[in-house]
Design goal:
Blueprint: H1 2-6, H2 9-25, H3 30-43, H4 49-59, H5 67-74, H6 78-87, H7 93-101, H8 105-112, H9 119-128, H10 131-138, H11 147-157, H12 161-168, H13 175-191, H14 193-199, H15 201-221, H16 228-237, H17 243-251, H18 255-266, H19 270-279, H20 282-291, H21 299-313, H22 321-331, H23 342-369
Helix pairs in contact: 2-3, 2-4, 4-6, 6-8, 7-9, 8-10, 9-11, 10-12, 12-13, 13-15, 14-15, 16-18, 17-23, 18-19, 21-22, 22-23
Length: 370
Amino acid sequence: MKWMETAKVAERAAAAVALAHAYLDGKLAFEERYAAEAAMTALLDDPSSKVRAALAEAVSMSRHAPVQVVAALAADQPDVAGPVLARSPVLSDTDLIECISEGREASQCLIAGRPRVSMGVAAAIAEVGALEACLVLADNSGADIASLSFRRLIERFGSDARLREALFADPRLPSDCRHKLLVHLGEALRDAPFVKALVGQVRAEKLTREACVRASLTLIDSVEQNEYEALVEHLRLSGELSTGFVIRLVAHGKIDFFGTVLVALAGQPEARVRALLSNGRDVAISALLQKAGLARETHTPVLRALDLWRDVACGKRIAGPQEVSWLMLSAIGGTDPQPESAELAGLLRTIHLEVLRENARIQAQAIAAA
């Protein structure tokens, strides 16, 4: 200790490393180990951050490092605290959460990037962490992130394109959170100055709304069936489970998801709803649709579509959304519907034209690739 008072910085740093290694090797006698621990504690007051950083690096990987030494180093300036915050197994979740709450972005990022991040620590970052720390957390496959924490990340920083991209790529992201991200993406496009200047505010809002609906339909294909109920509830609470959306589900053949929607809206047992959609009579299905709150004028095209999708499922017919949407439109009078079905006819015609355009686009891409 006397030598340390006059030694140069590089020498003191090397001595700190040697001292830490000797302590962690576990070969010292009790008295020597006690003295080494006292010496390391004294090194925490070294005026040079290089000495303290060398000590931090030396003890950062060990479970046997003195708790008071590691805790003090974790509270030091960023270049000293970095190694222990990033990987020390001595720091408890409580220690890490307290460090996160102090609001230092660099420290939060180091904690968010640890090889293993517990659910509690991840929740603290999602709740009070800076954007950069949240980005590190979203990219960390070793982080245990709860569904609630994913939602908080989106609520706080869903407008940031980098976070949206990171979360979209995360297979752990719940389906309702994916839908929230789609909504944020749509809002970002709607508010973009270029889009406003190109098509105007009103047109931009309409296009964004339609794009979000189509994206929601695509999202269903990437969601596991055991998540359908949660996604339906999210859509219902957010006011997006509209009649128009339900008609699109049927036209595009999302019958399993449509069944989950009917279970939620009609309050009927899932087994009964599945049985009716598989081979139920039109009268019984119409009663189910009415109980689910679907207007009577929607029943005829929905029943027509269900018949067609049953034939497709049984291999009796080859058809897709293009044919089904056209036959649904024809079922209510085509381009000359009854007045009460005029709005529904307009929706079905829009769906049909969208599918036509999409099919043409796919065909053109195939031709170009040939």
